Amino acid sequence: ELGPYRHFMQKEIHEQPRALADTIEGVIDRNGFVPALFGDADGAVLRDVEAVQILACGTSYYAGLVARYWIEAIAGIPCAVDIASEYRYRAAVANPKQLVVTISQSGETLDTMEALKYAKALGHERTLSICNVPESAIPRASRLVYYTRAGAEIGVASTKAFTTQLVALFTLTATLAKLRGRLSDEQEAQYLEALRHLPGSVQHALNLEPQIVAWAERFAAKEHALFLGRGVHYPIALEGALKLKEISYIHAEAYPAGELKHGPLALVDSAMPVVVIAPNDSLLEKVKSNIQEVRARGGEMFVFTDLDSHFGESEQVNVIRTPRHVGILSPVVHAIPVQLLAYHAALARGTDVDKPRNLAKSVTVE
Ligand code: M6R
To answer: Which of 3, 23, 86, 274 has the fewest CB atoms within 10 Å, i.e. the most exposed one?
Structure first.
């Protein structure tokens, strides 16, 4: 069942254009976003939402961090994102107008389930689950449910579940914005167009694999790596660092690039590879100046960007470019190169990619 692939992770990375196309096919039709996507009651539950609280673990939590930027910027609703195992033990403030969104590939993660139960015990009735496994525990305990169409994900490292979660969260954002009268027809048309192009843009990112293999072979000899991003791409830096740790066992940390001077810059020397997620978004110039700081300390950079950013290559700055900037959905496209980097670094180190040591696909214990 692996076909031409060596591991499920590699197969699942390459399945993303299909998984995204399937997911997108379910959320839009000729007239726009499909109505009642999150269940029959979605109008009643979502209509006068005044706050969003996202709860998740691991990669699903990073999907939530991306969504926060979208929900606040597009729907204009304050959004908090918590790691489920933290939320369930803190005295959170109940708010009847708050929508509680759990994100879980498996739908069985114990901490996320317990965080949901806790939110409900606090009196939150507006609950929505974004999940990849039908009829699993978390969606069963939620009022509204949205199932991503990633198909079975077998590798312990989450890949296609992540990018399809992002599409689900983007759709939720557009739905909330529409209910609040914040989505013009023109804007909606632009979002639909962006979604239609997404599988193709992800395929373009996958086509960069040979270039990424060359980088990964250099990473395989390292023991540490630093990942940087800003804004909506900061969670992609976090995801890149998690993927690398999880399957190659290289120690990796991610920081918002603006935080460099506040500590991590002290780690930078010629032995520390620095991965930068730097597409042509509104923070690009800021990222470029952060990069100069790394460069001045002798650090070697590996920059994932797009052609529109006009990033120059130099002795210390290696660049891989996707063909064009895709706008608001750029984090989805930029998830691909960091997945491939981790996969090929792990391959070069000979680790058990699909079943990394000490980890389980679904974490059903605390
Ligand atoms: O099934 P879930 O989405 O609830 O799982 C959450 C995390 O355990 C999961 O994303 C984990 O971090 C992955 N192994 C990351 O690749």
So the answer is: 3
| Helix or strand holding residue 67 (H, E) | helix 58-70
In whole angstroms, give the CA distance from residue 175 to residue 27.
Answer: 11
**Using CA atoms, how far apart are residues 286 and 202, in angstroms rounded to an integer?**
26
DSSP symbol at 15: T
The pLDDT tens digits for 138-181 are: 999 999 999 999 999 999 999 999 999 999 999 999 999 999 99
pTM to 2 decimal places: 0.97
Ligand 1 centroid to Cα of residue 178, in Å, is: 30
The tokens of 200 are what? 């193709």
Q: Percent of the chain scored above 70 by pLDDT? A: 100
Cβ–Cβ under 8 Å, residues 333 and 205: yes
Pocket test for ligand 1, best of 8, 12, 55, 57 (most atoms within 8 A of CB): 57
In sequence order, which residues have a C-beta less than 8 Å from that of residue 57 and are 6 or more positions away?
A: 83, 84, 85, 104, 109, 111, 112, 363
Residue 29 Cα to ligand 1 midpoint, Å, equals 30
Q: Is 25 exposed, middle or buried (0-12, 13-18, 19+ CB in 10 A)?
A: middle
Does the ipTM surpass 0.90? yes
Helices 330-349, 234-248: crossing angle, 10 deg rounding? 20
